[in-house]
Design brief:
Layout: E1 10-13, E2 21-22, E3 41-47, E4 52-60, E5 65-66, E6 70-74, E7 88-92, E8 100-102, E9 109-111, E10 133-135, E11 146-148, E12 154-156, E13 166-172, E14 183-188, E15 197-202, E16 223-228, E17 233-239, E18 248-255, E19 260-267, E20 270-284, E21 290-291, E22 305-306, E23 311-323, E24 331-342, E25 350-360, E26 366-372, E27 377-383, E28 390-402
């Protein structure tokens, strides 16, 4: 139940000992403990004019009693007082150790609480739609606040979220000075993109995180963005430079559940170099070849090792295959390497040189390298055996050079 505080609550009791006290009715000019509510707790004081006790107790309506659950302070060295016969006053109080206080000068407000394991020293329950907490600088109240909004988001430097998505932590520096607009956002994207998140540091002249009016990711050292998404293109990292600068950028892309990392070296508007780590796979159940892809689906220009126009790509990797355990233990492995080129379009893609070296191929399965001229990609074809269930997996490292 809740901790409830009420004004001018006072009754008397003739109870003795260290147990609960039975309340004898409200004193003149006061309310009874019934206003606390059955089963709720409150802060209390009990005194006979000499001995005293301050604690936390629970009011029970059926017995008109107040338990003495936690003793905060007392005249008995902080222990429960063993009350003797006679009338004692019992009233609601605000214990010093539970109060927020400000010193006599301009010192800080202090909250002191002795919370147990799994409990909070401070709990704020927002029953409306406004912010739960707002802390701001009195000299510039709207520019430098710290906010916890009704959704539990922590926002530093602004009074509300600057993006429509539901940020968990957002830090904004609001300034009209050129080059001063850093932000840090830890973002929980919409429910359509489950398990997603975002951390971004960005200089954003246009006000859009990570992108300025020229569609570049910031200026100077521009932006560092870490994005995550499920099932589609994901920016794991991005450092971009001014188009007119001699600085270079690095862009790392992760394709969600497709196991592909891609790095780019960008200078000005030209991307010159790509580096990638690919995990390709598929199944075979017959002697019909299949092409290994990022998602074990039919080859496209999204799920293979795809070249950009006017580029060459060197690759090196290992491939392994294993028969389904319930069918047998046959296994095989190969190493692959080579060079493939793509000119003006996908149709111009051609393998310049390639090699497939058998590490072990006792079952007699086969592996082949070719150019996918429909999608402009490196194609790795695996051929198993009739009526044999086999899983294939290829780990391929690539480096690609491009100069249009």
């Amino acid at each position: 139940m809740a901790l409830v505080l009420k004004d001018r609550v006072k009754e008397t009791t003739v109870s003795t000992g260290t147990g609960p006290v039975v309340l004898g009715g409200a004193s003149t000019g006061y309310q009874s403990f019934s206003v606390i509510g059955d089963g709720n707790t409150t802060y209390y004081t009990i005194t006979d004019g000499t001995s005293w006790e301050v604690g936390i107790g629970t009011y029970t309506a059926a017995t008109l009693s107040l338990s003495r659950d936690t003793i905060l302070e007392s005249s008995n060295n902080g222990n429960a007082v063993n009350w003797g016969a006679g009338v004692k006053d019992v009233f609601c109080t605000m214990p010093a150790e539970k109060a927020m206080s400000v010193d006599g000068g301009n010192g800080p407000a202090v909250i002191s609480a002795n919370s147990g394991s799994g409990t909070a020293a401070l709990q704020i329950t927002q029953t409306g739609s406004g912010n739960v907490l707002l802390v701001e600088d009195s000299t510039s109240p709207d520019a430098t606040p710290t906010v916890i909004d009704a959704f539990g988001n922590l926002i530093l430097g602004y009074t509300s979220r600057t993006r429509a998505i539901s940020n968990k932590v957002e830090i904004n520096s609001i300034s009209s000075e050129t080059g001063i607009s850093p932000s840090l956002g830890l973002t929980n994207w919409s429910t359509a993109l489950t398990r997603a998140g975002n951390i971004s540091f960005s200089h954003s002249p246009s006000g859009v995180i990570g992108t300025n009016a020229d569609n570049r990711s910031g200026e100077l050292l521009g932006s560092i963005n870490f994005y995550t998404r499920v099932g589609s293109t994901l920016y794991v990292g991005n450092i971009s430079a001014n188009t007119d600068s001699s600085l270079v950028g690095v862009n790392l892309t992760y394709y969600g559940n497709q196991h592909k990392f891609l790095g780019k070296i960008i200078k000005g508007s030209q991307t010159y170099s790509f580096g990638g780590e690919y995990l390709l796979w598929d199944f075979t159940t017959s002697a019909t070849p299949v092409f290994l892809t990022l998602d074990a689906l039919d080859p496209t220009d999204q799920n293979q090792i795809v070249l950009v126009n006017d580029s060459s790509l060197a690759f090196k990797g290992i491939v392994t295959a294993r028969q389904k355990a319930s069918d047998g233990t046959a296994s095989a492995a190969w190493s692959i390497e080579g060079l493939i080129r793509r000119d003006a379009n996908a149709a111009s893609t051609t393998v310049i040189t390639s090699s497939v070296t058998v590490i072990d191929n006792t079952p007699g399965w086969s592996l082949a390298i070719s150019a996918d001229t429909t999608n402009g990609a490196l194609a790795i074809a695996a051929t198993g055996a009739s009526a044999t269930n086999i899983v294939w997996s290829a780990s391929v490292s690539t480096v690609q050079a491009s100069w249009a």
